[in-house]
Structures are given as structure tokens and as C-alpha cells.
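Hi! If you just cloned this repository, the fastest way to understand the data is to look at a raw example. We've pasted two of them here, unedited. The first protein comes first, obviously.
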Amino acid sequence: MSVTPAQFAIDAATGDPAVRTVTFPGASAVGDLILIFLGISGGAVTSVIDDLGNWLTKLGDTDIVGTNSHAECWYYLNPVAGTRTITVKIPASSGFATGLSYSSVDQRQPIGLAVPTTITASGSPVSHTISPVRAGKLVTYGFSTGNATSITVTDAGYTVRNATSQYVHCEADIDVPEGSTTTHWSSNGTGTVQWLLWQLVLQERGVPDKTPWGE
């Protein structure tokens, strides 16, 4: 059984500028993997907790040097079954959160490869290449600045989920084989466009491991 997208959700208005909430539209199942991608302007996230008080685990973060643009990725493996709401506390009002969940992931090593990167380019498009040593589900996430109101993955075959908040951002996924895969992004931003991108390869349950988590 291959890794399967289960749900997608974006942050909702809460009345508190320092809080973002992501409520999934349906019930999560035991064994799922929840991913939360965060983009903020200034500072770092202070907490990411579900509605039962369980903390998510931070996978990593990245910044655009010389700016206050900051992105983080958090995950929650094997959540308690039910409709989950993730609450994110940030130090400033400029921020957003998006969430995805996946089923049939490896319970010991769900994330076989995680590669954040930043790109500063004049115009568009930009590309990002990764080289997984094991086939899986490539989850790619990005947001950009530079007056952009629309960004997307331009390659065929991806399931693309776009959402607009205080920044424009995009999530997409596709099944990938072992070897090199390049994802191409396009933005309608003008002038210098700054990108924060994440590429994650999720590993399928029941397939032997080939690479340590995070490498």
C-alpha cells in the first residue's frame, strides 16, 4: 500500500494575531502522519500543540539570509484517532500555517529525506533537486515574497494544493522513484523573488529502510 494523502487544511482566523489554528476536515486515523508547514515574518514559533495537548516534533527550519522570512516544518506521527486541531503560537502577527496528513507511512522511519532550501532569483521559475535513495511520496512545499500573489509547481503529475494567506504558498506531492527528482516552481512576483522551499520524501509502510531518517 503506497503513501496516500488523507487531508489538507489551512490556518483559520482566531482573533489572536499570535495564534494560528489548523483544523482538519475529517478524522485522522491511528498510524497517520501529520505535517505542519509554517511561514512567519520575524522570530520563531514558540509552540505547536494538538487539541489533546500533544506537542508536535520540529523537523527543522530555514531562513532567507538578510530578511525576516522564516519557515518551519513540524510533524506528528500516529496521532490519536479523531478530528485533530493543531494550534500554533508565533511571536508576530505575520504568519500562516498549513497542514497535510498522510496514511500508510512507515511507523519507524516515515520521513526518509528532508531538504529545506532558500532561493533568491530575479523573476521565475526556480527549481529544486533532491536525490532519494528509496522510492516514496515526495511532498514539496514553498512560499515566496516579491509581490507574488500566485505560485505553483509547474511539473506534470503533481497534486497541487494552493492557499493564500499573508504570504502566498503552495503544497504539492507526487510518487517518486529512487534517484534524482527536480521540482520546478513558478511565481508571478516581480523583481527579486525570494523562495523558501521544503522537499520531504515519505516512506511507505512495510518497505525495508535504506537511509537514516533525516539524511
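Ok, and the second one:
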Amino acid sequence: MASVWIGEDTMLARRVAVKTLHAELSPDTSLRARFRNEAISSASIEDPGIVSVYDTGDDDGVAYIVMEFVDGQDLRHLLDEHGPLSPMAATRIAGRVATALDHAHHCGVVHRDIKPANVLMAADGRVKVTDFGIAKANRNDPDLTALVPSSAPPGTSRPNRSAVSPPTPELMSTPPVSCCTRCSP
């Protein structure tokens, strides 16, 4: 759906990540709305455990989001390269993710797509949640995510993922279990 590039913010002299919607998807107004929703949802949350959004817009028909650059890799790649984490490391990561999600929930945003690919592991040890593309915000906006659960990659969808109600123990166990075992419960 999108590509992420490393960019340079020349005004503030810093590296940034620039996420662009694939050109062939740009004419789809519902996808553009979801993409914009990701920027708005993420930008409404200020937390050290969530990737910051600096800007969003459209350049010659290409929708983009400018975000904090995190020097590292996502948890999915880390697991693929190194195998299961120790229970202590998995617990540390899950705790940081839970803290970030708790803050997002207090800001009225439910992520709805937590999985190893959406957890960034910075080289300096920080853990950052990213990709609020199917987040549900408690605003008066129309529900832009009604069809999203059916488009989740195989093995990542959970029965109550789309609910805005409090998470169940099964849902909350998914990140730590997949960190330790490389498979979902």
C-alpha cells in the first residue's frame, strides 16, 4: 500500500522517514482517506514509544506522511534474523508497547493492528509503535476502517481486533507470545 523512504528535513537539519502511498493506489479515495487518517491519528499522540508524525500532504498527486526516522529495524525482521527472543527481552518489549498503546488509548486512539512488523526496534534500545493506518479514533469522523479486518495478512488477524472495547487477554498475549515463539497463540 505504501513505501517508506529515508529523507532529509533541510529546514530542521534532521533525517526523517517519508511514507508515500503507491501511485497506482492514489486515485482510490477510500485508501487516501485511510492514509490521511493514519497521519491524523499518529499526530494526535505525543509519546516516546510512538513514532512522531511531522507533516502530511500531497505532492503532485502522491500522498505522503513525514515521520520521525527510527534507526533500526522492525521486530518482524529481528525475529526472522535472530529467532525467538528470551522471555525477559520479550517482556521488556511488550511492556514498552503496552505503555505506548495505553497512552494512545488515553488520547482516544486504538491502534487495531499490533504485530511485530509495526514495532520498531531502534539501535539505541528504544521501542516504537508505528503504522496507525487502521487505527480507530474516538472522534465524529466517519468509520474509515470498516473493511480493513478482511485485508489483514494471514496469521495476523485476531477475532476482536476491530473492536474498540477493552482488549481481551488473548489479544494482549499476542505480541509477547509471538516474540518468544515466532507464532501467534
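That's it. A detail worth noticing about the second one: Residues 87-106 form the longest helix (20 residues).
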